Amino acid sequence: MTRVRLTAKERGEEVLQAAVKAFAASGYEGTKTDEIARMAGVSQPYVIRLFGTKQQLFLAAVQSVCDRIEQLFREAAEEAPELASLGQNYHRLLAEPEVLLVLLHGFSASGDPAIGDCVRQRFGSIYALIRELTGATPQQAREFLSAGMLITVMSAMQVIGPTAIPLPWAEEIAKTLD
Questions:
Q1: DSSP one-letter code for 160
Q2: Which of 22, 160, 24, 165 is nearest to 104 (CA)?
Q3: Taking the chain (178 residues) in consecutive chunks of 10 residues, what is each chunk's mean pLDDT?
Q4: What is the DSSP letter of 87?
Q5: SS3 139
Q6: CA atoms within a 13 Å half-sphere pointing along the CA-CB vector of 20
Q7: Is 52 left (phi over 0), alpha (psi -120 to 50) or beta?
Q8: CB atoms < 10 A from the CB of 42, how many?
Q9: What is the DSSP-derived secondary structure letter of residue 148?
C-alpha cells in the first residue's frame, strides 16, 4: 500500500483536526501535544514545528471552530437572513459536538490572557456577524446567543443531540429551542 504524501498545509490541517478532537475530549490543560501527534499520525516535534506551542495550537483550534460557526451562519443567511435560519444551522452543530466542546473549553480557559483575548475577540465577531447578517437588535442578538449557549451547554451534558440521554427536563427545554 502506497502512502499519499501530503503537503505541509494538508498535514497541518490534519493536525488541527486531531487537535480539535483532542481538546474537545480533554480541554486545554488536559490535552498533551504528543496525544495530538499520535492522533494525527505525526511526531510531537512536528506538531510543535507546525504550531509553535500547545497554546498556539489551542488558539488555532478555537479559531477553527469559530470559523465553522461563522460559516454556518453565512450559509443560513444566504437562504434567509433571519435569526431563525441561523438558529436552524446552529442546531446542525449537534452532529459536530467537538466544535461546541472546543468553544466551551475556550471560554473555560479564558483566564489565560492570550486565550481570553482570542475567545473574546471571536465571540464579539460572531455577535457582530449575527447582527450584520440579520439586522437583529442588540436585544434580539443577546437572546439568540443565550439560546445558542444553552444548546452548547446541553450538548456538552449530552442531553440534546443525536446521542442524547433522554431526560424529561432536557426534552422540555429542547422543545422550546426549535
A1: S
A2: 24
A3: 71 95 97 96 94 97 98 97 95 93 97 98 98 98 96 95 93 89
A4: H
A5: helix
A6: 20
A7: left
A8: 19
A9: H
Cα distances from 111 to residues 59, 80, 115, 126, 157, in angstroms, run 14, 37, 7, 20, 22
| Grid cell of 33 as nine digits | 501535544
Give the model confidence (pLDDT) of 71-112 as tens digits: 999 999 999 999 999 999 999 999 999 999 999 999 999 999
Q: How far apart are CA 44 and CA 65, in angstroms?
A: 23
57: CB partners within 8 A, 6+ apart: 15, 16, 19, 33, 36, 47, 51
155 grid coordinates: 450538548
Q: Report how far Cα 109 is from the mean position of its chain's Cα atoms.
A: 14
User: Helices in the chain by DSSP H: which ranges?
Assistant: 8-30, 33-40, 44-51, 54-79, 83-91, 97-108, 113-134, 138-156, 168-176
Tell me the fold of 8-176: Tetracycline Repressor; domain 2 (1.10.357)
Q: For CA atoms 105, 146, 100, 16, give the dihedral sign.
A: negative
The count of C-alpha atoms lying within 13 angstroms of the C-alpha of 68, restricted to the half-sphere facing its C-beta, is: 22
